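Regression test case RT-17, inverse folding.

Input:
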């Protein structure tokens, strides 16, 4: 999946915002409670629609159902200024009944239609596996295939050798700081 720089950045920020809301200082899952609180604060949060859309978009967490993923795939490739407004997406995305009232409030704001497209895209991205991990798995498979092919006499290429040296140096430093040696 290809992401615009705009959504690449916002995807991480949105995930971090949800992670921050997910648990309290004792590690207890409080996401439903925190989301309910955020939804009650929507009128205050609307001042941040354009400035920090990821902080407002969490009020719509799990509030979308995506009917046409090809439309969403195209949406996440767009830059901020090129996004279609909500009306153009409405036949490709359904709002859950509980989210419809929130959306009506947001859509009354000048940036509301733009923001609803951003919120839908962020929630869509949350449902997709991270492309970086997919690429890493692909690379691992390629490396496994290379293992069957002749490698240098020590069994490592230069990058692996350098990585192992760095890891060993880091482990030695940790022991010097008083930590047990990592086995």
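Golden output:
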């Amino acid at each position: 999946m290809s992401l615009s720089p705009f959504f690449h950045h916002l995807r991480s920020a949105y995930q971090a915002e949800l992670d921050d809301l997910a648990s309290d200082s004792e590690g207890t899952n409080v996401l439903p409670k925190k989301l309910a609180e955020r939804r009650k604060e929507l009128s205050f949060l609307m001042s941040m629609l354009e400035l920090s859309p990821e902080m407002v978009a969490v009020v719509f967490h799990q509030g979308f159902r995506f009917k046409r993923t090809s439309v969403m795939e195209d949406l996440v490739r767009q830059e901020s200024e090129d996004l279609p407004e909500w009306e153009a997406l409405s036949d490709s995305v359904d709002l859950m009944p509980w989210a419809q009232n929130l959306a009506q409030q947001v859509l009354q704001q000048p940036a509301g239609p733009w923001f609803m497209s951003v919120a839908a895209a962020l929630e869509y991205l949350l449902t997709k596996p991270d492309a970086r991990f997919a690429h890493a798995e692909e690379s691992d498979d390629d490396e496994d295939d290379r293992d069957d092919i002749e490698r240098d006499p020590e069994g490592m290429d230069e990058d692996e050798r350098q990585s192992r040296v760095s890891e060993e140096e880091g482990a030695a430093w940790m022991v010097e700081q008083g930590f047990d040696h990592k086995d």
